[in-house]
Specification:
592 residues; alpha/beta; 3-stranded antiparallel β-sheet; 26 strands; 24% helix
C-alpha cells in the first residue's frame, strides 16, 4: 500500500498541472484575465482541507473552459474510474453527439482532435499511450478530476450510468444511458422501473463486458421508447452475435459501433439507416456488405476488418467484399478494410472516393497495381494508406506500385504508409512523400540490390520505420545526413541480415531501436555510439552470440563505451518452458 505522503504529492502535482494549464490558456497581454485568475485562486491556497482545495482548483479549471470543451470533458463521465479511454472512440462519440463544430478548411475529425489536444494541454486529460506522430492513442482522467466531472455531469443530467442494480436506476429523464460491466449475473432485479423515461434518450453505450440479458432488455426498451436515438455503441460485447433487428427502426441513428463483437452478417435492413455517419465492424466476422450499404450517403467512417492472426498483426487483415459501385459513397473519409480480390472494378471505384483520409486495402492482385495508382492520384486528402497483396502469412503476391501518374506524389499528403506484400522495387513515388511520418514494410522481401533506405533517407518528416521481413540483403547502412528526424526504428524477421552500420551524422534524433528475430546478426550496429539521443535499445529473440557479447562486456572496455550512453537496454527471450521474459542490462542506478 502506498504511503499517505505519496497521494498528497500526487494531488499537489495535479493541482499544479491544472493551474499551469489554466494559465497557459490566457493571453499574456490581457491584464484583466490574469487578475481574474488571481482573485479566483487567492482563497484556495489558505485554510484547511487540502483535498477540497485541490477539487476547487480543478473546478476552477473546468469553469474556465469554453462551453464546447466543458461538454466534451463532462462526456468522459461515461467511463468508469481509471478506465483506459481509447481516444479515437472518444472523439467519434463527440462528433456523433454534435459537440464538435465545423471549421472552415478542416475535417470534422481534425477539429475533434484539436478539442482533445486542448484538454490535454490544460492537463485535464492525461495521455498514457501515443500512436505515430505523437497522436494520443490511450488517455485517462485523474480520479480527483473525475469526481468533479461526475458531480457536474449529474447536475446537468449529462449521462446516466448503470450496471443494472436497482439502486442505480434514476427516476429523471434519461438523455444518455451508459451500461458498465457488472460482476453480478443475477438478472431477477433487471427490471425497468415504470418511471424510467426514454422519451428523450439520444445515446445508448456499453462500457466493458456487460450482462447480455441486461443489454438486450435495455435495447428493446430503448428502441420501443425512443425513435430519436443517435448513438449506439456495443463495443467489446462478445455475446453480441448479430446486428439487433431493433436497430433498423432507429431512423435518426448516426453512430453504430459493433467493434470486437461476434457479428458475422449485416442484414439488408442496414439501408434504412440513411442518416448513419459512422459504422464500425472492426474485429468482427463480417466479410461482405449488402448492396443496401450504398443507401448510406452520409456515411463518413466505415470499418470492417479482422486480423488474420489475432496474436500478430504482421500478417495483415481480412477485409470485406464491397458492392461493385462502392464509389457512390462520396462522403466516406475512412475506408478500412476493403477486399480487392474481385479485380480492377472495385479498385477503380476507390478513385471516386475523393474525400478519403484513411484507406486500407487487402488482397490486392499484382495486375491491379496500375489501376490502384491511378485511383490514388485522385485521393488528395489521403493521410493513411495501407495496401496488402493477396496471399497468406509471409507468402504474399507481389505488389506492383511502380506506376507514376504525374499528379500522384505531388498531390499526396500521406503521413502513414503501410505495405504488406512482396515488392520487386520500392515504388518510385515514395521518395517524394515529404509529409510521410511513418512507413511499415511487411514481407516485402526486397532483394539485396534494392536497398529500401535509399528511397527513405531524405524524407524530411519521417519519424518511424517498421521493417518486418522487408529485405533479403546482408546489410543495411544508414548514411551520414540521412534520416534526420527518425525517432523510432523497428527491424524484425530479416533472416539474411548480417550487419548494420550507422555513419556519423545519420539518425541524429533516434530514441528507440528495436531489433527482433534477426538470427544472423551477431553484432550490435557498427557506429551505435553515434546515436547520442538513443534512449532505449530492445533486443528481442536475438542470436545467443549477440546477447552473450552484449552481456559480457567489461566496464571501461571499448565495446562497453559504445553503448554506455544508452539509458535502457532490454533483452527479451523465451525460457526453455516457453515463458516470455525480459531483463535489463543496466541496473536502475545506471539510468540516473
Amino acid at each position: 500500500m502506498l504511503p499517505k505522503v505519496y497521494w498528497i504529492n500526487v494531488r499537489l502535482a495535479l493541482a499544479i498541472l491544472a493551474i499551469s494549464g489554466l494559465l497557459a490558456s490566457k493571453d499574456v497581454n490581457r491584464i484583466d484575465e490574469w487578475e481574474m485568475v488571481r482573485r479566483s485562486l487567492g482563497g484556495e491556497f489558505e485554510g484547511a482541507g487540502k483535498l477540497d482545495r485541490v477539487k476547487r482548483i480543478l473546478s476552477l479549471s473546468y469553469n474556465d473552459l469554453p462551453w464546447h470543451l466543458k461538454t466534451c470533458l463532462l462526456y468522459t463521465s461515461i467511463y468508469p474510474e481509471d478506465y483506459k479511454i481509447e481516444c479515437y472512440r472518444l472523439i467519434n462519440l463527440w462528433i456523433a453527439e454534435r459537440f464538435v463544430e465545423w471549421r472552415e478548411g478542416m475535417s470534422i475529425e481534425d477539429v475533434a482532435w484539436d478539442y482533445l489536444s486542448e484538454l490535454i494541454n490544460r492537463s485535464l486529460i492525461q495521455v498514457t499511450r501515443v500512436f505515430y506522430e505523437g497522436m494520443p492513442e490511450i488517455c485517462r482522467i485523474h480520479d480527483l478530476l473525475q469526481e468533479v466531472i461526475l458531480v457536474k455531469s449529474r447536475e446537468q443530467n449529462m449521462v446516466t450510468v448503470t450496471a443494472g442494480h436497482p439502486t442505480m436506476w434514476p427516476s429523471e429523464k434519461v438523455r444518455r444511458l451508459v451500461v458498465h460491466s457488472s460482476s453480478s449475473n443475477n438478472t431477477q432485479h433487471h427490471q425497468v422501473r415504470p418511471n424510467y423515461c426514454f422519451d428523450h434518450l439520444r445515446s445508448f453505450i456499453t462500457v466493458g463486458s456487460t450482462n447480455p440479458l441486461l443489454s438486450r432488455m435495455l435495447l428493446s426498451e430503448v428502441a420501443r421508447g425512443s425513435k430519436l436515438i443517435k448513438v449506439l455503441d456495443f463495443r467489446g460485447q462478445k455475446t453480441q452475435e448479430e446486428v439487433p433487428n431493433e436497430i433498423f427502426n432507429l431512423f435518426h441513428l448516426k453512430h453504430l459501433d459493433l467493434y470486437d463483437t461476434r457479428v458475422e452478417r449485416v442484414p439488408k435492413g442496414i439501408g434504412k439507416l440513411q442518416h448513419l455517419e459512422y459504422l464500425n465492424l472492426g474485429k468482427t466476422g463480417v466479410r461482405e456488405l449488402p448492396m443496401e450499404i450504398l443507401k448510406l450517403q452520409k456515411l463518413r467512417v466505415l470499418r470492417v476488418y479482422q486480423q488474420v492472426d489475432s496474436s500478430d498483426d504482421d500478417y495483415g487483415y481480412h477485409g470485406f467484399k464491397a458492392p461493385s459501385n462502392m464509389g457512390g459513397l462520396l462522403a466516406l473519409e475512412v475506408l478500412n478494410c476493403i477486399d480487392a480480390s474481385g479485380g480492377s472494378t472495385i479498385v477503380k471505384e476507390i478513385g471516386k472516393l475523393t474525400q478519403l483520409r484513411e484507406l486500407y486495402i487487402t488482397k490486392l492482385r499484382r495486375e491491379d497495381g496500375k489501376e490502384l495508382c491511378s485511383s490514388l492520384a485522385n485521393l488528395t486528402s489521403l493521410h493513411r494508406l495501407c495496401i496488402e497483396s493477396i496471399g497468406k502469412g509471409d507468402d504474399h503476391e507481389i505488389i506492383d506500385l511502380n506506376h507514376h501518374p504525374p499528379s500522384l506524389s505531388s498531390s499526396f499528403s500521406l503521413r502513414m504508409l503501410l505495405l504488406c506484400g512482396r515488392l520487386e522495387k520500392m515504388p518510385r513515388w515514395v521518395a517524394h512523400l515529404h509529409s510521410l511520418v511513418r512507413i511499415d514494410l511487411d514481407w516485402s522481401k526486397l532483394r539485396g540490390e534494392e536497398d529500401p533506405l535509399e528511397s527513405l533517407q531524405h524524407l524530411p518528416n519521417l519519424g518511424e520505420i517498421n521493417f518486418c521481413g522487408s529485405y533479403q540483403g546482408e546489410g543495411l547502412c544508414f548514411k551520414a545526413g540521412g534520416f534526420l528526424n527518425l525517432k523510432r526504428m523497428y527491424l524484425k524477421s530479416m533472416e539474411g541480415l548480417r550487419w548494420l552500420r550507422v555513419e556519423e551524422g545519420a539518425l541524429p534524433r533516434l530514441q528507440n531501436l528495436i531489433l527482433e528475430r534477426l538470427p544472423l546478426l551477431e553484432e550490435l550496429p557498427l557506429g551505435i555510439q553515434h546515436l547520442s539521443h538513443l534512449q532505449q535499445l530492445y533486443l528481442s529473440q536475438m542470436s545467443s552470440e549477440m546477447i552473450e557479447k552484449v552481456e559480457n562486456q567489461k566496464e571501461g572496455s571499448e565495446d562497453y563505451t559504445k553503448i554506455a550512453h544508452i539509458p535502457e537496454i532490454l533483452i527479451g527471450y523465451y525460457t526453455d518452458d516457453g515463458e516470455w521474459r525480459e531483463r535489463q542490462l543496466w541496473e536502475e542506478k545506471k539510468k540516473t
